[in-house]
Amino acid sequence: MGRRNKKGRDITGIVIVDKPCGRSSNHVLQQVKRLFDAKKAGHTGSLDPLATGVLPICLGEATKVSSYLLDADKRYQVTCQLGVVTDSGDSDGNIVARNDVPVFTEQDLQDLLPGFTGEQDQVPPMYSALKHQGQPLYKLARQGIEVERKPRRITIYDIQLLAVSADSFSLDVRCSKGTYIRTLVEDISHALGCGGHVTSLRRTGAAGYQLTQALTIEQMEQVAQQGQQALDDCLLPTEDALPDWPAIVVEDEMVNALRHGQMIQVDQSYQQAQVRIFDNNQQFLGLGEMAENSTIAPKRVFVSYGEQ
To answer: Is 48 known to be catalytic?
Structure first.
């Protein structure tokens, strides 16, 4: 038997979803894929079921930039309940300890925060989607199994204290990829002398996308009632996904070479830069890597460029 063709449309673009609480990122991805009747879709890194907020979802050829968006910086608002420690680090987990919360001032907490900023090694939590010998860590954790996890190098760019009470605090955190906010909050709460867990987590920014650009599933469903074109108009152009990457315009005779995976020579020069490639009509061709001699090696080339 021959391979079955995937069902759905060849639609390309990026939609920013305001992920709801209590649903997995993959569940939201499948909802969006069905709404757009897209043949291909992918998200740019999972949010915990408890978490809400910015979840960029790439459709069609835009999935070729998803790994680059995954590597981008993030921003969160998080609230911690002090004195109650859970096995998962958030309110979805089981309580493993209850501790008295010491009396502390807002200034005490402010004084602690700078110690948690900057480059640092962070050990991922057992309750995470990382895999050990092909098995997600969270599945092992649910069986009571704990395995050694390698620390990962992360950067906390900034932490701002938003609110504080006798037994809780809320933070605004800007961080690099790979940061586990639950772990950061646990570390801060233990530094206060009592431990704690995350009760709410909202991603307010990811890869340059903001909450102001995000749509809820319900909003998209309402738009879909106006017709497929109205829903398609919600898509953001793929070429805008990496605004910090230089834009390189190539001559028409170079387009076919790029599509066949061949290196090309251009007049513009950026020292070892990752670049976005356009043709003379400003249509997006894909992504490449420029060497110091102004040659570009194609990395992600679109099958059919331009938004649908």
So the answer is: yes
